[in-house]
Amino acid sequence: MTAPNNAGGVQHRGLITISIMLGTIMQVLDTTIANVALPNMTGDLGASQDTINWVLTSYIVAAAIMTPVTGWLSDRFGRRELFLTSIVGFTVASMACGLSWSLESMVGFRVLQGLFGAAIVPLSQTFLLDINPPERHGSAMAMWGAGIMVGPIIGPTLGGWLTEAFNWRWVFFINLPVGILAFLGSAIYLPRAAKRLRGFDFFGFAMLSLGVGALQLMLDRGAEVDWFSAAEIWIELGLSITGFWIFAIHLLTGRDTFIDPAIFKDRNFVTGLIFIFVVGIILLASLALLPPMLSRLFNHSTILTGLVMAPRGVGTMISMILVGRLVRLVDARLLVVTGLALTAWSLHDMTTFSPQMDDHLIILSGVIQGLGLGLVFVPLSTVAFATLDPRFRTDAASLFSLVRNIGSSIGISIVTVLLTQNIQVNHEELSAAINPFNPTLQTLSPAAASGDITALARVDQLVNAQAMMISYINDFKLMMIVTLSAIPLALFLRKPKLAPAAAGAPAAAHME
What we know:
Blueprint: H1 7-11, H2 13-29, H3 38-45, H4 54-66, H5 70-77, H6 79-98, H7 103-117, H8 120-131, H9 137-165, H10 170-173, H11 175-189, H12 202-221, H13 231-253, H14 267-298, H15 302-329, H16 332-350, H17 360-386, H18 393-431, H19 439-444, H20 446-449, H21 453-486, E1 496-498, E2 509-511
Antiparallel strand pairs: 1-2
Helix pairs in contact: 2-8, 2-9, 2-11, 4-7, 4-12, 5-6, 5-18, 6-7, 6-11, 8-9, 8-18, 9-15, 9-17, 12-13, 12-18, 14-15, 14-17, 14-18, 14-21, 15-17, 16-17, 16-21, 18-21
């Protein structure tokens, strides 16, 4: 199926962009907006602290399983029709989540929300690439990237405000007006595209779904069941490896697989997948670390935490606006390297955090990181698709979103596990120095050295804070190393350039 370049799509480009970005932001927000509302849901839904997390897990797993099949569904039923159905289904499921009366009903509606929402992000990326000529792809990806990256940042703040000002149900009800606007705009202005019938590879889809679903379940459930000390995690790991292994063999040896192996022959796209995996790790892993750090170490409220982290989103927006223009003038590979360097710089600044500091360094490092990630995301999204056959765009966009989400899940799991383990280790090492014979303790707190329980409790609080801060710093240092390690991958990207267009024909992308 070729990308549509009809006059209607070009004529209404701005309205199409607004409509599909409303749907995209609505879907992306729901990956984080419900997190802060979980404690309030517990009592109303009759759930426990252990089971309430299924509200998040069910959505993540359902969306991960359905994302890869977006390409086949769009070919079979039409991209416009699939997008409209996804918007309606997601909005209705959101309303149902807000009306949930038990944990079981909430989990069921969240599964539906994930199933319908899975196609929204990859389809929005495909539409923006289709309705814009190659020379405008950078600006289009800047708009798309802004929604993808800023959504998770503002999600917890918006969710916290809605929960405090109204109640947790409004975290889901807020999707209704956005969904209606996105549907009406898309229904009126989205151009129709030709459908392409192709057989459905049930076996390949089943194996990939098994691999992705089991992996997401393992990553999301690991912290709750103490990882590999639980049989559940070993079973999920085995199922994930089995699913991915069989799918890889099937992809290489099978015929008419639902993902065409030819898509992986494009070097830029494969390198882009590796890059977006790293970006996924950094983007949401740092988002998973900062709010609890601000709450536990700095006693910030949910609203104040959101205000402190807001400049990070501002940095991303500024970067997106600038890079949308720069990508036409500057080598995209240079922008990616510069963005990774800025991100590494921000993470290095974060390794200097201390419990005694104010919010100045947190805000500054957040702005720098936002600028850096924006410089990486837009050129990467542009270059990754620059040499790809347009007929592969929807499948490629689905894989792009899937790999980014898997990277985010893996990154969050790794930093969370290391944080928990390092807090225990650091606390033990620091506590070893707290004894009556330590001259420093005798000088600073004679009461604690003499065994006063109240004084010792205060010292223990200080030790806990220091152990926690050191553990956060260790995580930031690990992410900095991962970021620096990704820089050499830019050498594998090829620079796209626009060839002179023939009379009456759109410009075509070529490679140096």
